[in-house]
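Morning!

As promised:
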Amino acid sequence: MIPKKTFPAARLKNVQHINNQTIFAKVAHSHSHEHDLIDLRAKLRGKDRRITKPREEILELLGKEDHPVTAKFIHEKLSGTCDLVTVYRSLKLLESMSLVKRFNFGDNTTRFELISSTDHGHHHHLICKACRTVVEIDECFDPSMESKIAKKHGFHNVTHELEFFGICSSCQAT
Amino acid sequence: MIPKKTFPAARLKNVQHINNQTIFAKVAHSHSHEHDLIDLRAKLRGKDRRITKPREEILELLGKEDHPVTAKFIHEKLSGTCDLVTVYRSLKLLESMSLVKRFNFGDNTTRFELISSTDHGHHHHLICKACRTVVEIDECFDPSMESKIAKKHGFHNVTHELEFFGICSSCQAT
DNA sequence: TTACTTATTGAAATAAACTTGCAATTAAGT
DNA sequence: ACTTAATTGCAAGTTTATTTCAATAAGTAA
């Protein structure tokens, strides 16, 4: 909410700056890129589900993105090929098929990211509170913490969402 | 979103079950309870800001709650004493004064919690994906991880949001 | 290919969360 | 008590996401 006001332009255009981290991510993605479409076909087969142009296009677009993006962003990028409603519906489907993961960076909009085969979608983000630049983070804490918490409170299938927030180097200057 | 459909009643009533953890939290809160109002007065003084009934009431209500609650929930609890808009505005003010913290559990609604003097608002939650029960978590990972990430990417003032999700013991049965 | 079945889409309406503008109110200094 | 301006309430407006339903198109079988 705070950055929404302070940097409307950045939010509107959904700018996501490039740095070493993201370039790396981009390379990693383009490798598994066409594999995702095969995955889509495989998962849809024999399930009263259909392989449609919007679904393929959204998956392809996500494959090219370095960071989680909003439904609105996808719709704009696809400019006219399908309705925003279809984007929402497709993302929900792709999520249910574990091809896409949903993120929330605290600005009241959901972002979606392709689940890469390497980390199974489990990684975290470092977000600049000023300009909303996103950096992908590989590090994670010791998984024993999770199982300890699960055991302590009698929960099963415990997972976690972890995001880091701060001020990036270029925003520190200004 | 998924639990929204599966358990509409739980979400509607904003049910938050009681267990050992939450009872503990309640006790801890009621101690610092009146201290928060003093805090409010101190922070508002000499700043062209006013101590108003809605602000006091919201702070008092949050002091009695064990878990983050929505603006809507606060408005309903306060039943008619002030408008929902005022709740939103007050929460924003209280947040800016570091008296309240904003949380996002991935269901498209913001929840607010009083920042306790003991942990300075830094703690995490374990949320049941089925019934939305919330448990307060004291554990956190080694802070060196945070500084490492900050340094690596040239970020300053790095903080984090960490939430755990799973299925609670009573939902496992059903 | 053609026909058939039904999942999927688009468009409009709806819902929910949150914000904004403005006149009326009220807290706080004098 | 008077004055000033911060705050509130109400109505209207945004934004994000979902639902309804007729039209479309994907997959299957002849």
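Chain B touches chain A at residues 1, 19, 21, 92, 102, 104, 106, 108, 110, 126, 128-129, 135, 137, 139, 141-142, 145-146, 148-150, 153-169, 172 (CB under 8 Å).

Hope this helps with the figure draft.
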